[in-house]
Amino acid sequence: MTSDDPTIINQEPATPVRVRRGTPQTFYDLTLDELTEKLGESGHPAYRARQLYHWAYQQLAPDYDTMTVLPKALRDDLANELPLTQLEPVQEIQTDDGETLKLLFRTHDGNHIETVLMFYPDRVTVCVSCQIGCAVGCSFCATGMMGLTRNLSTGEMVGQVVAAARRTQELDRQLTNIVMMGMGEPFQNYDSTMRMARILNDPEGMKFGARRITVSTSGLVPFIDRLAADPLQVKLAISLHAPTDQQRDTLVPLNRRWNVQELISACRRYVDTTGRRISFEYCLIRDVNDSEKTARELARLLKGLLCHVNIIPLNPTPAEPSYERPTEDQIKRFADIVDDSGIPTSVRYSRGVDIAAACGQLRIEHEGGTEPATT
Ligand code: SF4
């Protein structure tokens, strides 16, 4: 949250407000301009909207009552008409000696979503969910087994970040990074996800630098091009997991719609357009995608592309009990082959393995280092 971050822009989204039918609108759904307009309709001056944004996103006020600088009548009206959030905290689970916290929330319609906070010496990252369930159905992912219930609204995503920032502050730390790698495929909820990023990026609000926000995708090619054209310079992570269609068709069924070559071509266009590096996430599964031949295919596929590869040794999940984590020797050999080919490669392990996770496998990816370290 750096106020002088050059990646902060205050630009209106290209698409109009879309709150899913049935999902009540909250304060966290509104851009500053929309809030200004809404208050203006009731005769309130524009500075009231800025005051509200400061209280909500900089002071992290939990309710309107704590915004004592505002007239009581306005606070009462807003509490009735525009609640701050509809997310109800249900449970908090701690693991890794307190270095990972899972926050569980109940939504207005009785579903549950999870948000994960990861504490590192130099940064604090929140992993945000964008859907209840997921339609992509990756074969190694617990969330994929659930199918898709619905998209989350912008307000439900912003609400996760604000709750995480507040919890982080209580622990005398500051939230520094956001990764969209929780439950769901962000590009299947593209507009709301990017609206979330814009609201959090607002200089009058949380001032979250765009390059501290990472959006991941399992490979919806048209949205990679759309993101490349977006002025908000968020980072991109690709859940690749295999270099060939034969392997990827099984692991990430979306590959049958946009195959590996189409995906990598879109990634090259993205880098050409933005100049920004892409992170490729690669969940390493024993005897599935961990051979030396596959490592060489992966290196060939990504040759010349501005990127970084995160190798994530599998955490077995109920999604596919036959999948196993490779041995340490296998993991090292695979990573060395890719790295020696000139592609920067890291091996990352999950710290949150003992948390019961709805999106179990992606939790591993959360640790994939796709977010930038705090500088
Ligand atoms: S890994 Fe991601 S995209 Fe694949 S099923 Fe799980 S949540 Fe969906």
Q: How many structural domains?
A: 2
How confident is the prediction overall: mean pLDDT? 87
CATH superfamily of the largest domain: Aldolase class I
Bound molecules: iron/sulfur cluster
Q: Tell me the helix content.
A: 25-40%
Helices, by number, come to 11
Share of residues in strands: 15-25%
Radius of gyration: 21 Å
CATH architecture of the largest domain: Alpha-Beta Barrel
* Strand order within the widest beta sheet: 1-2-3-4-7-8-9-10-11-12
- The sequence of SSEs as H and E is HHHEEEEEEHEHEHEHHEHEHEH
Distance between the termini: 11 Å
What best-fitting shape do the alpha-carbon axes yield? elongated
How would you characterize the largest beta sheet?
10 strands, mixed
What structural class is derived from the secondary structure elements? alpha/beta
Runs in which pLDDT lies below 50 for 5 or more consecutive residues are 1-20, 353-375
CATH class (first level) name of the largest domain:
Alpha Beta
Tally of strands: 12
Please name the CATH topology of the largest domain.
TIM Barrel
Structural descriptors:
375 residues; alpha/beta; DNA polymerase, domain 1; TIM Barrel; 2 domains; ten-stranded mixed beta sheet; two-stranded antiparallel ribbon; 11 helices; 12 strands; elongated; disordered N terminus; disordered C terminus; binds iron/sulfur cluster
